[in-house]
Amino acid sequence: MNTPSILFVCLGNICRSPLAEGIYRHLVSAETYAGQIASAGIGGWHAGDPPDRRSIETARQYGIDISTQRARQVKQQDFAAFDLILAMDSSNLGRLQALAPREYQDRLHLFSRYATSTDVDVPDPYYGGQAEFDAVYTMLFSGCKALVAKFATERFS
Ligand code: 4NP
Questions:
Q1: According to the model, what pLDDT value does residue 157 have?
Q2: Looking at the domain assignment, is residue 42 inside a domain?
Q3: Model confidence over 88-147: pLDDT tens digits?
Q4: How many domains does the chain have?
Q5: How far is the CA of 55 from the centre of ligand 1 (A)?
Q6: Considering 10, 15, 25, 78, which one is annotated as catalytic?
Q7: Which residues span the domain enclosing 66?
Q8: N or C: which end of the chain has fewer CB within 10 A?
Q9: Which one is catalytic: 15, 16, 25, 89?
Q10: Is residue 17 included in any domain, yes or no?
């Protein structure tokens, strides 16, 4: 399996990207995975905070513990440090494209586009309820499964 380092990015790094990080980490836990797996937010409002309690609960229902994660903001060094930087929605992707140096633009992708060749946003569930968090979980789980399958067979790039 190819084991690229991956940074999952959303707006606040408390709802979607911590779930993506937790799910992906869980799925590759049986593999010898050399690449770093992390998440970050476009904004720094929640830096140092644990994930939103609804994301923690949603993950826990599927046997995944994300409670020890702490939010942080995307930083310039991330663009050189990660092989892949996967944005949860097209707004996040646009912000990353504006921040990243030209030589690292090809590391930036929309999560769904890269994982499943679908141009859909993982919607921000912050102002939603459990149904929105469940929908996010389902999208992230199928996307992360697709990433694992992809890296089992193809070279990433
Ligand atoms: P996330 O959700 O981007 O999935 O972590 C949000 C969390 C917090 C805020 C926005 C989105 N906020 O504006 O504080």
A1: 59
A2: yes
A3: 999 999 999 999 999 999 999 999 999 999 999 999 999 999 999 999 999 999 999 999
A4: 1
A5: 11
A6: 10
A7: 6-151
A8: C
A9: 16
A10: yes
What residue type is 67 in one-letter code? S
**Euclidean distance between CA atoms 96 and 11, whole angstroms:** 11
> H helices of the chain, where?
16-27, 53-61, 76-81, 90-99, 111-116, 130-153
CATH number at residue 54: 3.40.50.2300
Distance 16 CA to ligand 1 centre (A): 8
CB atoms within 10 A of CB 142: 15
pLDDT tens figures, 13-23: 999 999 999 99
Q: What number of residues does the chain have?
A: 157
Does some domain include residue 115? yes
What is the spatial distance between Cα 157 and Cα 109, in angstroms, rounded to a whole number?
11
| Position 60 in a domain | yes
The predicted pLDDT at position 153 comes to 87
pLDDT beyond 90 at 12: yes
Q: Is 10 a catalytic residue?
A: yes
Residue 25: pLDDT over 70:
yes
